DNA sequence: GCCGTTCTGGACAGGTCGGTCCAGATTGGT
DNA sequence: ACCAATCTGGACCGACCTGTCCAGAACGGC
């Protein structure tokens, strides 16, 4: 009935995720988005509407991917304490393995956009809730198998652990050496 | 010998701090800096050199102010645990009292600029070290007066506490209700 | 009152920004 | 072979960006 699209939406979206992750929303130009996706301006705008809409789609895609990775981790048969350590170090591994040592796209978006766009805010909050729920599941597993102490509720601990790992990412942006960050993870685990 | 400046450098700098805190480095235009400081373009560039130099000065000024506030807090005669709670809630009070619920300028700068500018990176790292040292002092006080347990070293705990309060600020950007954040502070204190 | 020096207002330059628009290309259905 | 519908390349728009420049203003010292 009509001319078909000559590119794959999700492939283009993946490239946009990387751009926004690199430079944030404001500092990513539509020219750069065209370059990295390989799309012309018209195709980009025809497919995604606006830079802001594309940003929202990028955040949702990133969040869905992360949620999948979390499910994979939960399928592990490690005990609760070991799995919790894995969860925390996996986040930091990803950051320290990145050339620019980028913080999680979600943190970047929280800081840059925050609550100024309700739809984006909700996407960020949903992702944060998902992550906290996952951490809570891990802690609960540890409390049941005895590898973690059970004096404080898993949901409460998850909120603290989530905040701590986000803060460690911020710290990793400016630290030269990873050792203090890993040390903080061990200190955190020693408290549980 | 020459025409004197018709404005106060530090007053202008204070206005620049607020601009950069509002919008970050990239999204703050030099026009906006002229408007908020009341300076003309020539005066702004004559006094501060470039937008990047002004940004660095703004960060240093903000850090110095924060360091002063920390010294004031340390002069309190609260016991360690109560003072630690005050330190953490003061940070969050400031954020939740702000209309845009801005995260600390240092966090913003870490996320936006990171290590891409060595001079700025050092300023951010110095401030983070100062803050951790202060938290460490507070924890040590608590361990000496018995209000906090002494099983983990104060420096180690300070790193965790610093990360947690930074993470809670990120969370505060998108949460609608402050209660979960305060609850996390209490959970954190319950672990010590 | 004049001089050397610094400051100031505003115009200007050269580039980039997000977004629109349209003519022409490309398809599936008939 | 033709149509309706969608996609695509690239020109284009008006706004905004950082930084420069210069003519003239405003001072302290003499």
SSE arrangement:
The structure is a homodimer of 192-residue chains.
Chain A lengths: L8 H15 L6 H8 L3 H8 L2 H24 L5 H18 L7 H8 L5 H28 L8 H19 L6 H13 L1
Helix pairs in contact in A: 1-2, 1-4, 4-7, 5-7, 5-8, 5-9, 7-8, 8-9
Chain A binds a DNA duplex (30 and 30 nucleotides) through helix 3.
Question: How does this model look, in words?
Answer:
Two copies of one chain form a homodimer. By secondary structure, chain A is an all-alpha fold. Chain A has helices spanning 9-23, 30-37, 41-48, 51-74, 80-97, 105-112, 118-145, 154-172, 179-191. Chain A has one domain: Tetracycline Repressor, domain 2, CATH 1.10.357.10. In chain A, helix 1 (9-23) packs across helix 4 (51-74), helix 5 (80-97) packs parallel to helix 8 (154-172) and helix 7 (118-145) crosses helix 8 (154-172). The longest helix of chain A has 28 residues, at 118-145. The relative contact order of chain A is 0.12. Chain A binds chain B through residues 24, 26-27, 100-101, 103, 107-108, 110-112, 114-116, 121, 124-125, 128, 152, 156-157, 159-160, 162-168, 170-171, 173-175, 180, 183-184, 187-188, 190-192, and chain B through 24, 26-27, 100-101, 103, 107-108, 110-112, 114-115, 121, 124-125, 128, 152, 156-157, 159-160, 162-168, 170-171, 173-175, 180, 183-184, 187-188, 190-192. The structure holds a DNA duplex (30 and 30 nucleotides). Chains A, B: Residues 29-48 bind DNA.
């Amino acid at each position: 009935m009509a001319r078909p699209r000559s590119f794959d939406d999700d492939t283009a979206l993946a490239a946009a995720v990387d751009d926004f992750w690199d430079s944030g929303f404001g500092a990513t130009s539509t020219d750069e988005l065209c370059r990295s996706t390989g799309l012309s301006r018209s195709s980009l705008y025809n497919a995604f509407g606006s830079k802001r809409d594309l940003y929202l789609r990028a955040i949702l895609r990133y969040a869905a991917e992360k949620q999948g990775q979390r499910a994979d981790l939960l399928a592990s048969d490690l005990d609760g304490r070991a799995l919790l350590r894995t969860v925390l170090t996996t986040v930091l591994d990803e950051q320290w393995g990145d050339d620019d040592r980028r913080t999680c796209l979600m943190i970047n978006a929280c800081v840059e956009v925050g609550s100024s766009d309700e739809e984006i805010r909700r996407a960020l909050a949903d992702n944060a809730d998902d992550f906290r729920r996952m951490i809570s599941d891990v802690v609960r597993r540890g409390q049941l198998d005895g590898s973690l102490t059970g004096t404080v509720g898993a949901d409460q601990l998850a909120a603290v652990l989530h905040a701590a790992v986000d803060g460690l990412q911020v710290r990793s942006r400016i630290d030269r050496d990873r050792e203090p960050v890993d040390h903080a993870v061990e200190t955190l685990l020693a408290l549980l």
